[in-house]
Amino acid sequence: MSTTVFTRDDIDISTRAADQFTRLYYSTYDSPARAEDLPKFYRPTSTLTWNGNPCQGVDGVKKLIQNMPSTKHEVQSYDSGNVTHGKSSEHPVTTPSRSVDGQPRVFFQTFMLVPDPAAPIAGVGEVAKYYVDADSMRFVG
């Protein structure tokens, strides 16, 4: 049985890839054009489980996003963050405490990223282009 040894460069490239992907993904998710742009992160074979509700492929993601209010994500680490839904995500206003609209919610999201064979090949030390093969998001607070 062989053991894979990761170098400091491997770890650095992985860290940069995670940072770049996370920034791009959530800025796209929070944009007004998200119903058109966010599905581009997925493929027809991709799976997404959003708070226990399964979606399949690009069309499933697009349908989910189209029915969701606007969002503002605040990533606190690579494994959790806060998300605010609704009109208050753009301009905070006073909302009733019983309403989810405008109230930040803690969530975690796990991505299984796969190098995109259609993307240009990354050079040595460069971050490859990825697509989301599997995605699981759940509210925790």
Automatic annotation (TrEMBL):
It is found in: Cytoplasm; Nucleus. Its main location: cytoplasm. Residues 77-100 have a biased composition (Polar residues). Keywords: Cytoplasm, Nucleus, Protein transport, Transport. GO terms for cellular component: cytoplasm; nucleus. Residues 17-139 form the NTF2 domain. GO terms for biological process: mRNA transport; nucleocytoplasmic transport; protein transport. Gene3D superfamilies: 3.10.450.50. It comes from the Eukaryota. The keyword Protein transport applies. Residues 72-100 are annotated as: Disordered. Has a role in nuclear-cytoplasmic transport of proteins and mRNAs. This is NTF2-related export protein. It comes from Boletus edulis BED1.
